[in-house]
């Protein structure tokens, strides 16, 4: 790929008239992306499970100048059933009619134990939130994405989802599987307009990173707002034709 997406500079109205759903938008990378995408003209649908946190991000977007009014989609990925996903899709279809971008940002780390010590219930929970929920949400939203002229799906990967590492357990396995899901979906739509890609955010100053590395020097890490170039590139028209890729945000 010839484009230097890590230093990509977004045009002021890059995402104008684009409707974009971001999961895990109440904090970290999801929040930073929601704010920046709104600044670039995107109509942002904020997903999360904590209403108060989502309302805070909503207010932050509303405080920006000349940004489309966002909306909030509350859904607990750990406990949602098929009816909840379908209801969410129905509500969005009624309100918007189409979806131009879907960013699967929500993830959980789970236990940092060896495979021999890993609790089976926790294993299932991590795989469900990080992988199965992304599959389920994508599936119900595909009809809305197909209504868009230039739709884009972004899955969140990880370095431990490309090369296994000791004690990363279910999280690493879920990210390997996410890479696979992205590749399968991209290949299924290779002849169509839907673009499907993965992004590995890398070490970023988020609460989830703090959970994984509590003793790390956080000042040495880039903040979420510093790693958004690849996300904006894939969400906008400049990446038309780019699909089935796995990019590094930094």
Overview in brief:
With 250 residues, the chain is α/β, with parallel strands linked by helices.
Q: Can you give keywords for this protein?
A:
250 residues; Rossmann fold; seven-stranded parallel β-sheet; 7 strands
Order of helices and strands: EHEHEHEHEHEHHE
Radius of gyration: 17 Å
Largest sheet: 7 strands, parallel
In what range is the share of β-strand residues? Answer: 5-15%
Helical segment count: 7
Number of strands: 7
Structural class: alpha/beta
What CATH architecture label applies?
3-Layer(aba) Sandwich
The name CATH uses for the topology is Rossmann fold
Distance between the termini: 15 Å
**What strand line-up does the widest sheet have?**
3-2-1-4-5-6-7
The amount of helix comes to 25-40%
Q: Overall 3D geometry?
A: globular
Describe the protein.
The protein has a 7-stranded parallel sheet, with helices on both faces. Helix content is 40%, strand content 13%. The chain has one domain (9-248): Rossmann fold (3-Layer(aba) Sandwich), CATH 3.40.50.720. Helix 3 runs parallel beside helix 4 and helix 4 runs parallel beside helix 5. The longest helix has 27 residues, at 120-146. The chain has helices at residues 28-39, 51-63, 82-95, 120-146, 169-188, 207-212, 229-235, and strands spanning 19-22, 43-48, 71-74, 101-104, 152-156, 195-200, 246-248. It is of the alpha/beta class.
């Amino acid at each position: 790929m010839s484009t230097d997406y890590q230093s990509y500079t977004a045009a002021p109205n890059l995402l104008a008239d684009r409707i974009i759903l971001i999961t895990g938008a109440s904090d970290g990378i999801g929040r930073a992306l929601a704010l920046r995408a709104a600044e670039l003209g995107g109509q942002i649908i904020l997903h999360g499970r904590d209403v108060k946190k989502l309302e805070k991000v909503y207010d932050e977007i509303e405080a920006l100048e000349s940004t489309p009014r966002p909306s909030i989609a509350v859904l607990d990925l750990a406990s949602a059933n098929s009816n909840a996903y379908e209801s969410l899709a129905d509500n969005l279809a009624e309100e918007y009619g189409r979806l131009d971008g879907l960013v699967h940002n929500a993830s959980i780390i789970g236990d940092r134990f060896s495979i021999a010590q890993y609790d089976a219930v926790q294993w299932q929970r991590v795989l469900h939130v990080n992988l199965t929920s992304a599959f389920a949400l994508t599936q119900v939203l595909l009809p809305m994405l197909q209504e868009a002229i230039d739709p884009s799906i972004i899955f969140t990967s990880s370095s431990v989802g490309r090369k296994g590492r000791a004690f990363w357990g279910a999280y690493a396995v879920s990210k390997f599987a996410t890479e696979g899901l992205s590749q399968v979906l991209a290949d299924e739509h290779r002849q169509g307009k839907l673009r499907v890609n993965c992004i590995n955010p890398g070490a970023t100053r988020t609460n989830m990173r703090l959970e994984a590395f509590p003793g790390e020097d956080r000042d040495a890490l880039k903040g979420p707002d510093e790693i958004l170039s690849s996300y904006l590139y894939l969400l906008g028209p400049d990446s038309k034709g780019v699909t089935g890729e796995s990019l590094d945000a930094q």
